[in-house]
Amino acid sequence: QLASPVARAGCKFADGKTITMNYSSPRMRGRKIFGDLVPFGEVWRAGADDATTFVPNVDVIVGGKSVPAGKYTLFTLPTPTKWTLIISKQTGEWGIPYPGEKYDFARMEMKVSKLSSPLENFTISFDQAGTSCAMKLEWETTRAFIDITEKK
């Protein structure tokens, strides 16, 4: 059994346009995650193995910033109180090392909340509502989330 199985997440807007994401889903396996396995204040690949891909087939607004349709790589910068989402133009790479700020397309702040019980598998999911797809990254007892809307 793979330590970090490949997983997919996606969201479909009302008009049929989509966001698709491929990532690897590591397991806690008894480890302390945030602030330990995933250090605070260091860029994290938001998954394991291959870099996490973010592919909107329509122009979107992510946390207030415009992101044109295309293929990107997703990274995060977790801290105890807030996370930063990093959308990188560098694609097709292994998830580490982070390719560097020179490839960043944009950085946006994510909101953070606590889960009521620990989640064993790192999970990316979307809450879809009309023109909005809220993206959630959840693992251990942490949820980081950000709103994504279609650019009109």
Question: What's the gist of this structure?
Answer:
A 9-stranded antiparallel sheet has the order 1-2-3-6-7-8-9-4-5, with no helix packed on it. Strand 4 and strand 5 (65-67) form a beta hairpin.
List the helices and strands and how they pair.
Blueprint: E1 6-12, E2 18-24, E3 52-56, E4 60-62, E5 65-67, E6 72-78, E7 83-88, E8 104-129, E9 132-150
Antiparallel strand pairs: 1-2, 2-3, 3-6, 4-5, 4-9, 6-7, 7-8, 8-9
Structure write-up:
The chain is 0% helix and 55% strand. It has 152 residues and is an all-beta fold. The protein has a nine-stranded antiparallel β-sheet with strand order 1-2-3-6-7-8-9-4-5, with no helix packed on it. It starts with 5 loop residues before the first strand and ends with a strand. The mean pLDDT is 94.
* Head-to-tail CA distance between termini: 44 Å
Average of the residue pLDDT scores = 94
Tally of strands = 9
Biggest sheet features: 9 strands, antiparallel
Stretches where pLDDT falls below 50 for ≥5 residues? Answer: none
Using the alpha-carbon principal axes, give the shape: globular
Strand order of the largest sheet: 1-2-3-6-7-8-9-4-5
Give the SSE order as H and E letters.
Answer: EEEEEEEEE
Structural descriptors:
single chain; 152 residues; 9 strands; 9-stranded antiparallel sheet; mainly beta
